[in-house]
Request: fold
Amino acid sequence: MYTRKNQRNLTRSEKRRLVGALLELKRSGRYDEFVSMHGEYYVSDAEDRPRVAHMTPSFFPWHRTFLLKFEQALQKVDPSVSVPYWDWTSDNTPASSLWAEDFMGGTGRSSDRQVMTGPFAYRNGNWRINARITDGRFLTRDLGRPGNPVSLPTKAEVDAALNEPVYDAAPWDSTVTTGFRNRIEGWSAGGADRWRNHNRVHRWVGGLMMGATSPDDPVFWLHHAFMDLLWTRWQGAHPRSGYLPRQRLGRSDPQYRRVFSLDEPMPPWDVKPSEMLDHTRFYRYA
Reply:
């Protein structure tokens, strides 16, 4: 059992050890395997194949497993390391300590969005983006998108999602208008509120966080640790409202064999959502 802390509460040593483990995982090639996996399992509603990671009820248990496997890889480098979470409802500006020179580094320069500061800046020689996964060799960001400003989600917006009494609902995709999962994942039909919560954070960071290979930016893991914590908070607030759908969808359902029910193994690990409902056998949150 270990603890995931709020990134703002990390000591200087904890930050240094986390950065060191990230850089070593990158150097070994293991980091890019996780980036490729996320890209492979980014499947949209429009695609007629299984959809396990996004726009689907298994968004939370899939990413919990993904994050846990990544964290275990980090711990093989340094057993003291865990993935901290970024509470973007409070650390919500480019001036937050998250973006400091000794941690995640800052936003990209205006000409090409290339990140020039911090340990993941291309010019420091330790963070080369894999060209087989995406175009370009360097990490990019556009924090807050000054040219077309976007704000991070507020605590009130998160609370509105946490107040949803049901986990998810038919048609179990990006169009569902009720349920915690999509209220917090953040798909919407359009308008000013098109990108909500989780999705808006990806857009606020900009650059490589906007694509299917968003783990190219190491802040991805801190963002998803907070998403995992929000799922935990929702579970605590609604103890009688479990994962849905509980049963495998029938052949007549448009989402047959596309959506994963409670006890259907999720690729690529063959882990069932039901096995990932309780995080406390692995870690706790401070």
Summary: The chain has one domain: 2-285. The beta strands are 2-4, 283-285. The radius of gyration is 18 Å.
